[in-house]
Amino acid sequence: MKTWYHSWRAALRIARRDAWRYKGRSFLVLAMIALPILGVSAFDLTVRSAQLSTEEQLDRTLGRADAEVSDPELGGHAIYQSPTGDTYSPVGDFDNGPWPSGPGDVTKVIPAGATTLDDTLARAKLRTTHGLLQTEIRELKASDPIARGLLRLNEGRFPEKGGEVAATSHFLEVSGLRVGSELSARGLDATYRIVGAYELPDSLDTDQVNALPGALLAPLDKALQADGLPGVEPRTTHLVRAPGGFTWNMVQQANTHGIKVVSRAVTLHPPADADVPLYKQESRHEYQDSNTTQLAAAGTIVGLAMLEICLLAGPAFAVGARRSRRQLGLVGANGGDRRHIRAIVLGGGLVIGVASAVVGTVLGLGLTYALRPVLEDYIGQRFGVFDVRPLELLGIALLAVLTGLLAAIVPAVTASRQTVLASLTGRRGVRGSSRVLPVLGLIAVALGAVIALYGSTMTDQFAVVAGGSAIAELGVVALTPALVGLFGRTGRWLPLSPRLALRDAVRNRGRTAPAVAAVLAAVAGTVAVSTYTASQDAQQRASYTPQLPHGAVSVMIDEEGGRAVPTVRTAVEKILPTDVRADVDRISVGRPSCPMWGREDGCGEYEVVVPEAQQCPLWYTGTEDPAEKFSKAERRKLLKDWRCKESSVYSYVNGGVLVGDAAVMKVLGIDDPAAVKALADGKAVSFDKRNVDTDGKIGIRLITDREKAAEAIVKNLPAPGVVKSIPAYQVSGDPNAYGVTMLLTPATARAAGLSTVPVGAYFTTSAPPSDTQKQKLESELDKTGSSVQLDIEAGFTSETNIVLLALTVFAGLVTIGAAGIATGLAQADAESDLKTLAAVGAPSRVRRTLSGFQCGVVAVMGVLLGSAAGVLPAIGLRLTERRSSLNAYHKALDEGLNSVSLPYVPVVIPWGTLAALLIAVPLGAAVLAALVTRSHRTLGRRAAT
Q1: Rounded to an integer, what is the distance from CA 627 to the centroid of its chain?
Q2: What are phi and psi of 469, to 5 degrees?
Q3: 95/74 Cα distance (integer angstroms)
Q4: What is the pLDDT of residue 402?
Q5: What is the widest separation between alpha-carbon atoms in the chain?
């Protein structure tokens, strides 16, 4: 007795033989299925190899040490920390006050008999062949056994003497130096010899130099401070190897002294959550991220990709079934029933699916292994072990098998329903289309539309809109056969070739509908993303705030008391086509080298004194929120008060106070002769009327004791300090000074007893700087080794054009591919019709034009349906965003936040993309199909009917 095993064995043998016989078609389907499998398997291997195990990660952070001990500088105040040490918090309630600060004592937590190794990091400017480069300096005895695994030596050796250093390979590449070169730091006369090149396995693109402890940072700090410059700011951690390791109890004991510990033993074997005090003081969910949304998005993408492949590969299997119909008829004539026919066609899908799985997985393994160094450089870290997870790869391979089977289901059912006589004689037969599928499609469209409408009008959840849109799109796919029939009614008004093509598409919906659906899915996704992207682009354009007048340039530096400012000003004038140059300084409190926001000893700050009557009632003046004193209606009313208006342009300097001349106003586009005269008369020019008191003066408070100032703020008192009063002129109206609130000349600043340091310059340009000039300027600025804030106001620049172009090209390729597959099947089906046309004397070009119109018909139908299906979800998502933005806006108004504006969330249809899809893509598909079709065929014998 024949069993299912024997029938399937025979079916698979026949399917394998057919796949080998028609290599072109088999390779096409195999490539469509195998390429995504290759990509997914390679992605899985890359991600898994880059995800280090806990042991591997500890080797890269601890080396061979048992723990890393560090001081979070909370003044020795007790802390709670997570078992891994990545999060910590001081013990107690500090929600309404600052955290403790100050150094702790690490020596109290080092166990007796332990071996320690100091690891110190700081940043400094080192001299290279190109100029100066901000570089990380690491003082660590890298040759110590405890440090093994932290640094990976590539060339030479680690330093063994005080005058030697090693450098990362990336630093040597960007600096132009090599092993054996001499290296020096700015501000330090001593030179160091580079004796080795290494890499940080977790950060391959880090610029770092390694020296022995005390060999580089201490002399550099001393030299910088001797020149009146800020010294280095080292941070030291201690690698500890202790007998018996560091237990959780030892970690908690260290926490009582305000010291944080990363323990190898605790990380490998963490305690229960109930034994972690940090999770009791603060809920653990604050430290955990949910990946539910990412998993749902990944599942949706995989599902849609499988659907697209099935829609594209299905017609190809139908081509095979159509060409093998005589063979399938012989199977039926020799006793085979419908299930055997289905098994043979499904066997073709199974054979191609298995082959695709094997090819895609093997190529994914091979390419990932071969490209491992390239992938490591791209992600910026070395892999651990080459992590091959057989179950995951098997699951990915099964997706290929499942895709092949799903793609062959419809052709298998269609082939099994043909009679033996029709298969042997080549008759196509007439079969009515399904009435159930359109009904299901209508239900899905209605259900999806309701869900998307609910999501866009009643909730703020994007997932609801996206889910409803996906259901509606699947419904449109199910409706495709019926919609193809409706398109057929337009054929009566068309010439011969397009009428034949449209009639053929309608009569053979089994091959037309999947191809149209494939085009529909690709175009719908493209139109949806294009509409959403174009809408966001319009929103960003409307909300764009220029930082300067159009064409103006500014450079700002807050380092080393403006030491590099003259060089930067000259570089801008040399490279860019500048007209007016306006140098600006800033007020400095304390040593000239003090940074604007620094907390170093001997450094202070200043603040603009705003008269109490002109202060916004919603401003914070202490630790309590003043907005709580007002009702929602009062807060909304106060937000319209002139005292509560905020500038939308960020000011680089504290309070927007600049020291310069009238050229600054010229660059900023402020034309006020009275203001120019006021500057010349020794007055300050104010662009914010809140700053000028009733006597026509402004006040600048110089704060030299930051700690007392912080205490005064907590007590809702003015900060202690000397107030310098300066006569001021208030510019009339509401001028846009681009973040500048006050301008005074250097002479006025000196007369008021204010110290200043250079901070930057403003420029006007005679022509917009070109990309080449910008790149050259950035290269020159990099050579200074300073952190330069460069702004070139070129107006809003859209970055979506390339995205829209890429989406259009992608949709066009899928459209041409799907239409081409449908055209190939149509030619196989219509061979007898073409022979009849040739027999009755039809011109040879009819074959070519008919082929082109067959391809164009599929493309036009798919693009039209896809465009309609794609616009709706994009509109739904934008409506959801509008609702969410309005809710956030009204909530901000109720809370008295004065930095919000009425949201503008437009819906913009990308007509250019739609025009390309609706006209260019179908036309291109039709022309391409016509060009690749042979017009001359040998007249053959028609099969008897």
Answers
A1: 36
A2: -65, -40
A3: 15
A4: 81
A5: 114
